[in-house]
Amino acid sequence: MSERHLRQSPATKTMPHLIRSTILLLAICWFSQPATAQTAAAIEANVKRLASAEFAGRASKTAGHQRAADLISTLFREAGLKLLSGAEPKVAALIEGKTRKDEFVIVGAHFDGFGGEFAGAMDNAAGVAVMIEVARQLAKTPPQRSVLFIAFDGGEQNNAGAKRYAERPLVPLDKTVAAINLSGFGGGFGDHLHESLFVIGAEFSPQLSAAVTKHKRSEAWLAMLGDDMTQFAGAEHLRIKLGQLPTLNITNGIHYAYHSKADVPGRINFPALEKHVATLSKLVAEIANTPKIERAAQPSYDADETAEWHRLLTALRENVLKTSANAAAQSQIDDVLLELRRFKGRAISEPKAREAVILRAASLCFYIANPNGVEYNSLLIDARNYEQKGDRTQAIASYQKLLKLIETEYRGDDQTVADIRARIAKLSTK
Fold first, then answer.
1. Which residue among 26, 157, 190, 348 is least enclosed by CB atoms within 10 Å?
2. Does the residue 175 lie in any domain?
């Protein structure tokens, strides 16, 4: 067939039209997808990228950390937000309110990690990815107040970035009506209760409590827990320090893989994150549209808190590791479950009662029923028992196992590592 004949072929005459039509059809299919499908795809893509070798674990003041900051800035800009400049925080973006532009709600998530082989997928690449998609949803229909989205630095350094922000805020703190911190998404408590969001601290603001209550049974399951339980979780996970601002700390749960090399994207439940974005978008909009938000002098705890702890501990009780340490833990969980059932349907406000029931439940959750806690604490208890008995050989062996666990799998703070090494050295020289 000649070149001239080929150019004049009816089939080939229609090829450009077919190509254009195909491209148009593909575009229509993409943009006509449900928003949730696009959201899920974006979350997964961003988590996998932030947790990839490209960013080398996002440790503060590293090249990978800066590349992560640049990516988050680009994603905020693509979502339709206005970037704010400043040395701290590294990344901040704004949605201007419709009628109360000079009042602000902060939504924050730390984006730094430990660096190296610590990918930090659930802690806190997923929290950042969720925050970006919440921002994207709100940008489509801005609320009455302005919303400031912040990717905080120094989350793994005892919230150093949030503390620096409190000292040098981008917007006046007296014009900031509430703050929401997002940390720990995609895993749940030990791989369970994926669709639950645990809201900590709502008891100090009647308006925030009302906003959460309104959306309790949304796409995700919202459970309000008292801020006093954060003493067992640590500040890095659940708290930002912004003076007396009404603050919500929201998490999907403290997972045993946190601060370990096991915190990788493959462990994340991405469909659950999709639901979290939908619920959080409504909640942030609700708060940003609430006429007046106050911080109460005295907490008013949610009546469902006891039922939520019962639900959480029951899930953990049914799925705890079958170890000797957990054999005792199961009995303790049963005791607390019995106490929780006594209070079901009413709030526990009295400090001694909270310590005996709520805080005991939190302690079990974080230190016993959590697999990481079981393994770590079991080794630590063994080492201390052997040391007290004067069995130096077994004590040293247990401390060495504990040190190996920290160095090869779980991220321990420098002081803990130094203390263990000091114990080993002391026992070895006796």
1. 26
2. yes
How large is the greatest C-alpha to C-alpha distance in the chain, in angstroms?
Answer: 97
Whether residues 199 and 318 share a domain: the answer is: no
Q: How far apart are CA 366 and CA 386, in angstroms?
A: 25
pLDDT tens figures, 88-126: 677 999 999 999 999 999 999 999 998 988 899 999 999
Helix (H) or strand (E) holding 107, with range, is strand 100-110
Segments in 192-257 forming alpha helices (H): 206-214, 230-233, 235-238
Confirm whether 297 is domain-assigned: no
> Tokens in use for 124?
């806190």
Please name the residue ranges forming H helices in 79-185.
Answer: 126-140, 160-167
Spatial separation of the C-alpha atoms in residues 209 and 303, rounded to whole Å: 11
Q: Are residues 381 and 350 in the same domain?
A: no
Count of domains in the chain? 4
**Strand 221-225 and strand 196-200: pairing?**
parallel
Encode pLDDT of 237-284 as tens digits: 445 666 678 999 999 987 777 877 888 999 899 999 999 999 999 999
- Report the 10 Å Cβ neighbour count for 292: 6
Whether residue 373 contacts residue 256, with contact meaning beta carbons closer than 8 Å, is answered with: yes
Answer yes or no: is 294 within a domain: no
Same domain for 144 and 279, yes or no, is yes
Two tokens, residue 160: 């150093």
Integer Cα distance of 393 and 424 in angstroms: 10
pLDDT (tens digit, 9 = 90+) per residue, 334-390? Answer: 899 999 999 878 899 999 999 999 999 988 877 665 555 556 767 887 898 899 899
Token representation of residue 179: 């703050």
Question: Which are the contacts of 337, defined by CB distance < 8 A and separation ≥ 6?
Answer: 310, 313, 314, 317
Side by side, the strands of the sheet bearing 247-251 are 82-84, 91-95, 145-152, 100-110, 176-182, 247-251, 196-200, 221-225
Residues 175 and 285 in one domain: yes
Q: Is 367 helix (H, G, I), strand (E, B) or coil?
A: helix
DSSP state, 81?
P
Same domain, 60 and 79: yes
User: The pTM is what?
Assistant: 0.81
* Whole-angstrom distance, CA of residue 57 vs CA of residue 44: 17
Domain of residue 329, residue span: 305-369
Residue 336 lies inside a defined structural domain of this protein? yes
Residues 130 and 278 in one domain: yes
